[in-house]
Amino acid sequence: MAKKVVATLKKEGGVTYAKVIKAVKSEKTGAYTFREEMVPTTAVQDTLKK
After folding, report:
1. Which of 21, 27, 32, 35 has a beta carbon 3.0–4.6 Å from 5's, enabling a disulfide?
2. What is the DSSP string of 12-43?
3. Spatial separation of the C-alpha atoms in residues 11 and 33, rounded to whole Å
4. Conformation bin of residue 22: beta by default, left when phi > 0, alpha when psi is -120 to 50
5. H-type helices in the chain, by residue range?
């Protein structure tokens, strides 16, 4: 399983955001690509489950 990275970033407007980086395997080639998302820290676990 690929490594998942979460980095906590500054607060803006009272909401703290985190940058979530996931390794996603391509169905066609089998190569891994990285998908980055900015999500509120309260939604990090839900994002990683997808």
Report:
1. 21
2. ETTEEEEEEEEEEE-TTT--EEEEEEEEEGGG
3. 28
4. beta
5. 44-49
Whether this model's pTM surpasses 0.70: no
Helix (H) or strand (E) holding 50: none
Please write the tens of the pLDDT for every residue from 19-46: 999 999 999 999 999 999 999 888 888 8
CA 29 to CA 25: how far, in whole Å?
8
Helices (H), 1-49: 44-49
Structure tokens at 46: 């839900």
5-14 confidence digits (pLDDT tens) = 666 666 656 7
Residue matched to tokens 């980086």: 21
